[in-house]
Design a protein that fits this description.
alpha/beta, D-Maltodextrin-Binding Protein, domain 2, 5-stranded mixed sheet
């Protein structure tokens, strides 16, 4: 059927490989190739350049033109084929600090929306999230860093101030300078490239902190002595209402923490409208400036 061929074409165009496309579609490479060939016959033109010896599959001019409409065409064909199936399901993967401290309210709003958007949520690190989205194993990602990739759309989702968090002490000034913070007592979390560059200006990047962590939860667990400190965004502070923590602003202001929303340029069937709902709900909650 036409929709199977379009699906195969999009997978090949996205991955640049018959074998990777076959893996995504859970087909053999031969079946994937046959579906593409049938589509080309129906359209009356060649979409993919099959020159031997090339590692990366390239599209013909006709393929480039068809790519623009293929995603919408597939969604329409599958909608006609099975109109009773709910389109509103999103597979989301976000960095731990966003999933745990910023996004729960958004997720609940989507579940309470009319129509409901069903969610499958997981957490991972930024490079992994980009890879999952490229392979279309997820529909939406929330990441720390902005990577420029052909099939990925990147949008600023929110930004916020970074503050110093410390174990409770009754004698803390409102502001603190980097010179007053012993780097060996830092619990370090990498908040992205700009943060890393800023951090390296003030503290030796080779030998500064004694403890580095990859989840915000570990900061909370490990921050137990008055001399310890960490840099965290405001959203984390708002969640940690426990009286054992104190917060200060740095005189040498660190870069804001930024979170990006990433989506695929050619989303799988049924997700485009769900993603539009997510964005509408997010804007109502003052995300997506």
């Amino acid at each position: 059927m036409l929709d199977l061929g379009v699906e195969a074409f999009l997978a090949i165009a996205t991955t640049g490989s018959f074998s990777k496309a076959a893996e995504i579609l859970a087909l053999t490479q031969s079946s994937t190739s046959q579906r593409l060939k049938k589509l080309e016959t129906e359209l009356g033109c060649q979409l993919v350049d099959r020159q031997k010896g090339k590692k990366l599959i390239m599209l013909t001019p006709a393929g480039e033109s068809f790519l623009i409409i293929a995603g919408k065409m597939l969604a329409t064909l599958q909608e006609i084929k099975n109109p009773a199936v709910s389109n509103f399901h999103l597979r989301i993967c976000g960095v731990d600090s966003a999933n745990g401290f910023i996004l729960p309210e958004l997720y609940m709003a989507l579940l309470n929306n009319n129509p409901v958007v069903r969610l499958t949520i997981e957490s991972s690190q930024t490079p992994v999230i980009y890879k999952l989205l490229e392979e279309q194993k997820i529909d939406v990602g929330f990441v720390h860093n902005e990577y420029r990739l052909p099939n990925i759309k990147v949008e600023l989702f929110f930004r916020e101030e970074m503050l110093v968090i410390r174990s409770f002490s009754s004698v803390l000034a409102e502001d603190v300078s980097v010179e007053e913070l012993d780097p060996s007592n830092e619990i370090y979390f990498n908040w992205g490239p700009k943060f890393q560059l800023w951090h390296d200006v003030y503290w030796n990047p080779v030998n500064s902190y004694n403890l580095g962590v990859d989840t915000v939860t570990l900061i909370e667990r490990m921050l137990c002595r008055p001399e310890q400190w960490a840099l965290v965004p405001v959203s984390v502070l708002q969640r940690w209402t426990n009286a054992q923590f104190s917060f200060q602003r740095l005189k040498e202001k660190p870069p804001e923490r930024i979170c990006y929303l990433i989506t695929h340029r050619y989303p799988r069937h049924g997700t485009a409208e769900a993603i539009a709902i997510l964005k509408t709900v997010a804007r109502s909650m003052n995300f997506l400036p």
